[in-house]
Amino acid sequence: MTMRPPRAWQRMLSGRRLDLLDPSPLDIEIADIAHGLARVARWNGQTAGPHVFSVAQHSLLVEAIGRHLLPVHGPAEGLELLLHDGPEYVIGDIISPFKAAIGDSYKAVERRLLSAMRVRFGMPTPSPGFARLVKRADRIAARLEATRLAGFSAAEATRVFGRPEPLPPETEALAEPWPTAEAQGRYLDRFHALMTP
Keywords in UniProt for this one (predicted)? Predict the structure, then answer.
């Protein structure tokens, strides 16, 4: 008896069937990404407030921080910031300590999905300098979320994420959790604004 290989695809609400091991750019839809990310909780849901703090909202925060750090950049860079955690719409948000425990297999799937997204939305691979800016914006967002929402003391957050960096009040305000539909809608709106020159 021949054993069938385990299923490695996920059915999306758009009707697409996304293969996690060999993702096709043709099976990636922004509506699926926004829907999924608005329903994936950051910090495994261990955050204060009446709503989860979603990966969609985190992505909007990272994109806003990126605009603050580098005010002059193009739509492709904005999309890179907005979609930096895009693969999590289908593979979920695994907290950093667990990612470290499971090693490179998770990262390999994440890289393939992000590469397919870049092709789908016409985004070049970011320069090393811009990739560092994305990581910096992500770390600044994580520190803000840690102290505002996830119960970290300032000292603990500094040990884990580094010193705080000043942000405009309107950017800091993005760290207040929104209802799912609002996070999804605002994520889609920002994507379309970046896609429309």
Answer: Hydrolase
